[in-house]
């Protein structure tokens, strides 16, 4: 895992977007196409804002959706489908394909459908974040590192739901869904390149555990330590607890 610290949240997002765009372009140049995973949430705001402005031929890129709540409509303000349509699709225009998670009917059948789709491609770039509880996607601790499925239905723990409330996506804790469909750790780690963007003081302890702690199901994002091409983009606040202080770019 390589750690890069931007001088601000905006700079962090710009650096992450440039690195991700370059990896996509390398894949397109080598094979004529690329496949990516897109995360959502507040951590991805500045990265996505920069990514959609860069010179990427999105018509050659297939996109997979990282996670989505169960029992939430796409019209809901917290819907990740809505988020990605507004912050990505509507701004880049045509992509080769976008495989949204649609949990509205049978979540397990949707997991099976998405697993079949993603098993047919190689993911070139995964754009990720880290949760306050150390989760990766919605794989809360203790995460299942061993499942061979690509997508699973997960129960969201208290800390995860509190994060969604604290970020302003829901009016009360009881409004936060208790389940989600999530891409699994085993599927995420198959990605050729991982770009993880993690700002804010509230993520500092999770970042420290992910970077300097042991690889553990109790800090799911720590699995990125074992990836051969993973870069963690931080801002000064999220990197504040690291013992080995990375240079600020």
Fold and architecture overview:
With 249 residues, the protein is an alpha/beta fold. The protein has a single domain, classed as Rossmann fold (3-Layer(aba) Sandwich). Helices cover 31% and strands 18% of the residues. The protein has seven helices and ten strands. The strands form two sheets. It has a seven-stranded parallel β-sheet with strand order 1-10-9-6-2-3-5, with helices on both faces. α1 packs across α2.
Which characteristics define this entry?
single chain, 249 residues, alpha/beta, Rossmann fold, seven-stranded parallel β-sheet, three-stranded antiparallel β-sheet, 7 helices, 10 strands, 31% helix, globular
Secondary-structure topology with pairs:
Elements: E1 2-5, H1 9-31, E2 34-38, H2 45-51, E3 61-65, E4 67-69, H3 80-92, E5 97-99, H4 107-119, E6 125-128, E7 151-155, H5 158-166, E8 179-183, H6 185-188, E9 193-198, H7 204-212, E10 230-234
Summarize the structure.
The protein is α/β, with parallel strands linked by helices.
What is the CATH architecture annotation? 3-Layer(aba) Sandwich
Main sheet characteristics = 7 strands, parallel
Distance between the termini: 17 Å
Q: What structural category characterises the helix and strand content?
A: alpha/beta
- What fold name goes in the CATH topology slot? Rossmann fold
Shape: globular
Q: Would you report the number of β strands?
A: 10
Sequence of strands across the biggest β-sheet: 1-10-9-6-2-3-5
- The proportion of residues forming helix, as a percent range, comes to 25-40%
Low-confidence stretches: none
Average of pLDDT: 96
Beta percentage is 15-25%
Count of helical regions? 7
- H and E order: EHEHEEHEHEEHEHEHE
